[in-house]
Amino acid sequence: MNTTKRKLIIAIDGHSSCGKSTVAKDLAKKIDYTYIDSGAMYRVITLFAMRHNLINGDQLDENKLAHLINDINITFSYNDELKRHETFMNGELVEDEIRSLDVSNNVSLIATIKFVREKMVTLQRKLSEAGAVIMDGRDIGTVVFPNADLKIFMTADVEVRAIRRFKELKEKGDDISLDAIRENVKKRDFIDESRDESPLRKADDAIVLNNSHMTKEEQLEWIVARMEEVQ
Questions:
Q1: What is the pLDDT of residues 188-227, one digit of tens each?
Q2: Residue 142 to residue 160: CA distance in whole angstroms
Q3: How far is CA 29 from CA 35, 145, 152, 179, 213, in A?
Q4: At 23, which helix (H) or strand (E)?
Q5: Potential cystine with 153: which of 15, 202, 214, 231 (Cβ 3.0-4.6 Å)?
């Protein structure tokens, strides 16, 4: 890609388990952009809350989390040996742990908290000041970067997303049923779309990408073509 073209801010939003992070990471590598994993940031807060026993069923001790949240430092790094982006919490590598089903089942609870979202948005905007960044999440094009140069809303059929997530967890050795994952996907959709604070929705100027029947390569080609249209 022509490096003289202006550096874009690319916002990728969409439903859970539709491959937002995967395509964002692949795209960042392909065009030499910085990738910021907003979903991982909320997963770190969730893991922190779980470790400190702040979550009991569907109840969260918001007061304690508000008191402790400034003690959480989130950083990202690319592992050249493993060829993957990794997330750290206070210097500890937590990339695999934050992708567990236990964290997935609690992350929507954390993501509904206003002070958590405000802290994350502030950090996300700071990380993106220089442009040439790709960020994926639930409210990137609507809240974090309402003036993003390119907004994409990704989705896929529920069954397709559940099967993808099932295969991903199986490869990691997790013993979990497809039915449990399907219910988790549906639950996260409902919570994400109905929460009061920054609900998941398609920005008016976002382009829909339904990848139910697309390969990773086809998705990349599609997004690069959309980039060239706005540069």
A1: 999 999 988 888 999 999 999 999 999 999 999 999 999 9
A2: 26
A3: 8, 21, 18, 34, 23
A4: helix 20-31
A5: 202
Question: What percent of the chain has a predicted confidence (pLDDT) above 90?
Answer: 71
The number of beta carbons lying within 10 Å of the beta carbon of residue 11 is 30
**Interaxial angle between packed helices 20-31 and 216-230, expressed in degrees from 0 to 180 and rounded to the nearest 10:** 60
Q: Which residues contact 69 (CB under 8 A, 6 or more apart)?
A: 45, 115, 116, 119
CB 197 within 8 A of CB 112: yes
- Position 4 scores a pLDDT of 60
Please give the biggest Cα pair distance in the chain.
Answer: 52
CA distances from 106 to 45, 103, 111, 216 (A): 10, 5, 9, 28
| Inter-residue contact 230 to 223 (CB < 8 Å) | no
pTM, two decimals, is 0.77
Sign, CA torsion 153/159/163/166: positive
Please, how many CA atoms are within 13 Å of residue 170, restricted to the half-sphere of its CB? 10
Rounded to a whole number of angstroms, the CA Rg of the chain reads 17
